[in-house]
Amino acid sequence: MACDEKRHKEHICVLTVKGELDLVHALTLQPTIECGKCGAKASDPDLVCDPVQLPDVGWMGDGADVKL
User: Which residues does 1 contact at the CB level (< 8 Å), separation at least 6?
Assistant: First the structure.
C-alpha cells in the first residue's frame, strides 16, 4: 500500500521526528496496527504509512499461571 502523501504529516513517523512525543504516546497506547515500512505501532491505520494488522495476543494471559 502506498503512503497517502496528503496525510503523511499526521503519521507516527513524522510526529516522532518533529518531537511530538506526547501526542505519539497518546496515539500508540493500545496499538493494533504496525507500519510495514518503519515498524511504528499505532491504534489507527491512518496513522502509519503501510498499515499491517498486529496479531491478537489476548489469549496469552498475564503469566499468573506460570510456575517457576
Answer: 36, 50, 51
**pTM of the complete model:** 0.71
Residue 23 φ then ψ, to 5°: -65, -45
The model's pLDDT over 18-58, given as tens digits with 9 standing for 90+, comes to 999 999 999 888 899 999 999 999 999 999 999 999 887 66
Name residue, grid cell 512525543.
Answer: 21
Q: Which residue, chain included where needed, has cell 498475564? A: 62
CB 49 within 8 A of CB 13: yes
Q: CA 7, CA 36: separation in Å to the nearest integer?
A: 17
Q: Rg of the chain over CA atoms, in angstroms?
A: 15
Residue 60: is its pLDDT beyond 70?
Answer: no
